[in-house]
Amino acid sequence: MTMIRVAIADDQVLFRKGMMAIVNGFDGMQITIEADNGRILLDALATTDTLPDVVLLDLSMPELNGVETTKLIHKNYPALKIIILSVYGEDRFVTHLMDLGVNAYLFKNVEPLEVERAIRAVVETDFYFNEAFLSALKNRMLVKKPRRLLTDDLPATLTAREIEVLNLICKQLTAPEIAERLSVSIRTVDGHRANLLEKTNARNTAGLVLFAIKNRLLDPADLL
Questions:
Q1: Interatomic CA distance for residues 5 and 28, integer angstroms
Q2: Domain 150-222, CATH class in plain words
Q3: How many whole angstroms separate alpha carbon 142 and alpha carbon 216?
Q4: What is the pLDDT of residues 117-153, one digit of tens each?
Q5: Is 4-140 in CATH node 3.40.50.10490?
Q6: Which PROSITE patterns does this UniProt record tie to the protein (predicted)?
Q7: Could you give the CA distance from residue 19 to residue 202 in angstroms, rounded to a whole number?
Q8: Are β-strands 104-107 and 54-58 bridged in parallel, bridged antiparallel, or unpaired?
Q9: Residue 195, burial from CB neighbour count under 10 angstroms (0-12, 13-18, 19+)
Q10: What is the β-pairing status of strands 4-9 and 104-107?
Q11: Which sequence spans correspond to the domains of the chain?
Q12: Equal fold, 4-140 vs 150-222
């Protein structure tokens, strides 16, 4: 089993140390970077020999908060997966963070098993959406006023095959699994994924799933 390297940035010492003990207890995972704010995390990323695979990121931190840290990580380390750990549960706030391109959003009161599940999911399939997030997204879609955007017709620009691949991506199938399901090569699947990212302006797979939900190409209930 390949070791999953995890970084954590949280200014609450007790929570951070507790989370480190929990993650280090998961099979095949290890905390490799510990920071109490976003600035220290970025400094550590710039000097480490081996980048982590996943960052567990608090939102409210001194020096550099989670939102600004997320933007800088995307700019400098686009392959790094971000899981937000937060006490903030307002629907608009949760969906805004997902729009920024984080790979998962967890409330700090989740069970350790869900943290493990989220870490493995973002490594394997690039995203993890739990019931709390999907509920927030659904509520946001219900109250948000519809408006005409240039992107309104984007779904119509997708080919039938691209929609098929998008649907399988949303079901958390990996590229090899999608290739086997559609009897095509992994390279072909990667090509469709690249086209989807370009057409939807999504940052990552999490963004593609958000696109599918917001454009009614996917029922959020199908992800549970």
A1: 9
A2: mainly alpha
A3: 12
A4: 999 999 998 889 888 778 777 777 666 655 545 455 6
A5: no
A6: HTH_LUXR_2, RESPONSE_REGULATORY
A7: 30
A8: unpaired
A9: middle
A10: unpaired
A11: 4-140, 150-222
A12: no
